[in-house]
Task: structure prediction
Amino acid sequence: MQKRLTVKELKAALVDVPDELEVRFGSDTEEAYEIIIEMARRVKYELPDGQKFEDTGETGVDYFEIYGNAVQSDDF
Result:
């Protein structure tokens, strides 16, 4: 299983990076499109009344999401 990037690792990678620098997504996957990073946010919430997720048994979630969409090469 691949290791997921942590916020700590992301913060370390952003030290001294200018605010205006464009973010690009890179991958070794051979695809016919480019991924455009559109949004980044923290997703954090608790289920009401002590409910638990059936699959994980957790009462809530807390993670950082980076969202992107694929575009054809001639779209940009």
About this structure: Helices lie at 7-13. The radius of gyration is 17 Å. The chain has a mean pLDDT of 85.
